[in-house]
Structure formats: structure tokens, C-alpha cells
Design a protein that fits this description.
By secondary structure, the protein is an alpha+beta fold. The chain is 63% helix and 12% strand. A five-stranded mixed sheet has the order 2-4-5-7-6. It has a two-stranded antiparallel sheet with strand order 1-3. It is rod-shaped. This is MacS family sensor histidine kinase.
Length: 365
């Protein structure tokens, strides 16, 4: 029945309580000129209360045909009141036979169709009541009931609409959570099997050479594409999964390795880290050659995200970075260190004749 269920049960209770109230008025108030007709109206109300309670409990029956019949039955009972009241119609203290029972279809319209539907139903019932009072020259025109009926329709319709929207959002969140759990499970399985095999094929093919090297290159491309696929997942608003940005740097010459779990950072931090990695890879191509290989590793350790760019070049001569900064060539100083420092992170450069390693650390927050 969903979140609407409590609304329909509340309306059913309201119908029964209003029916009892109308019956008590009929039994105690001796001013009705035709009590027999009045009890017939009460009987019709009782039958429809039972039928409507059953019909609205079945989700398949709830719709505009049932709502229209519900409103018409209430109007018929209301319009029968003058025949029961007779000459006392409109006298002070005289209530229409249905009393508050006519508000039930207004509430039903509001729950099903929202504020506008509730306002329309309230307007129809209120117009019928005011028309009956206007027919009697001695009857005072009282707007309190019409105003309260209109407010009830609008307020209940608004609350019902908010409840439906909340239920839909919860349902979507549950579906997304279930889908993400399945994605994470598959990502773990792929990471533990397929990606490791592709990485092995790539490494061994490069070592063997010849046709095996081409096979290794193809395995490397597929590994990078598969890692980007399993890394793509929605991140919280204002955040980005750093893996998806790093995977864009993957190529036959650049191997990108990331964990199976997300590396979520604030979007500016994730974009800054990716830009720093791009600058580091540009340095590899510039100083180590267009065919130089590089590796990008990303991991999460405690409250820090670490990204490492490694190459197999000749290394950076001692003092070269300082001389470059003094000469105004600020590639590493600004493109990497300056950018990461602005994000609250640190950069460590380790160089040796066997290659250079640039380690970028950024806080999770």
C-alpha cells in the first residue's frame, strides 16, 4: 500500500466517526421534519462508508472513477438535507444530515491528486452547501465551514504530495544503494581476477617482446578501460571520485592503478590532483622522451589520498629543480607543488638514476 496507506486508513476512520456523529444528531435532534427520510440518508451513508472503505483499501480500485462517485454520493446526501429538514431548513443550529461526513471525499481527492484536486473537491462541496443555504431566505450565510473545508483539502493534499515525493526519493536511494553494492562486488571480483591477469599479460608481453609486446600493449589498453568502467560511480554532491579523473591518463605508455573502492575528494581537490598528475606526465614526456613509460598509483591511507607518478628515466640531476625555479621555469614548482599546496597537500620528489617518483598527498577533507 506504500506511504499512502496511513492516509486512506485515516480517511476510513474519519468516515466512520462522521457517520456516527450524523446518526447521533439524527437521533437527538427532533427538529427534522421528515426523520424517516433522514434515516434513509443515514443508511445510504452507512452503505457507502462500508463500500468506500473497501474500495479505497484496494490500490487497483483507487482512481478518478471511484473518486467521482464518492463525491457524487456525498453531494446527493447533502442535497437531500432540505427534504429532511423541511420548514426548519436554515434555522439556527440546524445541521445538514451528512454533517461533517461530506468532508471525506474532499480528503480522498486531496490524498490522490494533491492540493489542486483537494481544492476543487472542497469548492464543489462548499458551493453545494452555500447554494442550499441561499435557497432559504432565513438561513444565515456562513462561510466558516466552506473555508475550513477548503483549507483541509489544500493542507492534506500538500502533505500527501510531500509524502509521495519522499517515498519516491527513498525508493530511488534504495535502488541506487543496491545497484552500488552489486557494482562494488563485481569491482572486487574483477580487481582480484581479470585486472590482475591483464596486468600480468601486459608486463610479461613487454618483457618477452616481439608479438607478445603487442599483446601486452592491447592488454594494457583493456586494463585501463576496464578500470575506468568499474571506477565510475556517483559521488556525493560537490565531490568527485579521483579514480575517474586519473583513468583518463591511462594509455599504452601510462599504466594507472587505483583501488576498487572510491577515492572521493571535494571536486576542486580531485581536479587539482588530476591536473598535477597531468603536469608530472608532461614532464616525463618532455625529459624522458615520447616513448617513455610511466606508472600512476593511487591509494587511500588513513585520512590521506596518495597519488604517485613514477618513470624509468635518467632521474633529475641534483639542484636542477632549484635552478629551474630561479630561472623562472616553474613546471614542478608551480604546476605540481604550488597547485597541491593550495589544496592543503604536500609533494615529495624522489629521484635516482633509475627513475623519478613524485608522491602527492592530499587530505580526504
Amino acid at each position: 500500500m506504500g506511504i499512502e496507506g496511513p492516509f486512506w486508513r485515516a480517511i476510513a476512520v474519519f468516515r466512520v466517526a462522521s457517520l456516527v456523529y450524523a446518526a447521533v444528531l439524527m437521533a437527538q435532534y427532533r427538529g427534522y421534519e421528515e426523520p424517516v427520510i433522514g434515516w434513509l440518508v443515514i443508511a445510504v451513508m452507512a452503505l457507502w462508508t462500508a463500500g468506500a472503505t473497501y474500495a479505497y483499501a484496494a490500490e487497483g480500485l483507487r482512481g478518478w472513477p471511484l473518486l467521482t462517485i464518492d463525491l457524487l454520493v456525498a453531494l446527493a446526501c447533502l442535497l437531500a438535507s432540505p427534504y429532511v429538514e423541511g420548514v426548519r431548513q436554515g434555522a439556527a443550529g440546524t445541521m445538514p444530515v451528512p454533517a461533517t461526513w461530506v468532508a471525506a471525499p474532499v480528503l480522498a481527492w486531496a490524498v490522490h491528486g494533491g492540493r489542486r484536486a483537494g481544492a476543487v473537491a472542497a469548492g464543489v462541496v462548499a458551493a453545494a452547501d452555500l447554494w442550499l443555504r441561499a435557497r432559504s431566505p432565513d438561513a444565515p450565510v456562513m462561510l466558516n465551514g466552506a473555508v475550513l473545508l477548503f483549507l483541509a483539502g489544500v493542507v492534506v493534499g500538500h502533505v500527501a504530495r510531500l509524502a509521495k515525493e519522499a517515498e519516491e526519493r527513498m525508493q530511488r536511494a534504495a535502488e541506487m544503494e543496491a545497484a552500488q553494492r552489486e557494482r562494488d562486488r563485481l569491482a572486487r571480483d574483477i580487481h582480484d581476477s581479470v585486472l590482475q591477469v591483464l596486468a600480468l599479460v601486459q608486463r610479461r608481453g613487454r618483457q618477452i617482446g616481439g608479438e607478445a609486446a603487442e599483446l601486452g600493449r592491447l592488454a594494457g589498453e583493456q586494463e585501463a578501460a576496464l578500470r575506468e568502467l568499474i571506477a565510475s560511480r556517483p559521488a556525493p554532491t560537490g565531490s568527485t571520485d579521483l579514480r575517474s579523473l586519473l583513468m583518463r591518463h591511462g594509455s599504452p605508455l601510462v599504466t594507472v592503478s587505483t583501488p576498487a573502492t572510491p577515492l572521493v575528494l571535494p571536486t576542486p581537490a580531485a581536479e587539482g590532483a588530476a591536473a598535477a598528475v597531468r603536469a608530472a606526465l608532461d614532464n616525463v614526456r618532455e625529459h624522458c622522451g615520447a616513448d617513455a613509460r610511466a606508472w600512476v598509483f593511487a591509494e587511500s591511507c588513513d585520512d590521506v589520498v596518495m597519488v604517485t607518478v613514477r618513470d624509468e628515466g635518467p632521474g633529475i640531476p641534483e639542484g636542477r629543480l632549484e635552478r629551474a625555479a630561479a630561472e623562472g621555469r616553474l613546471g614542478v614548482a608551480q604546476s605540481i607543488r604550488g597547485r597541491v599546496a593550495d589544496l592543503g597537500g604536500t609533494v615529495t620528489v624522489t629521484s635516482a638514476p633509475s627513475g623519478t617518483e613524485i608522491e602527492i598527498s592530499l587530505p580526504h577533507g
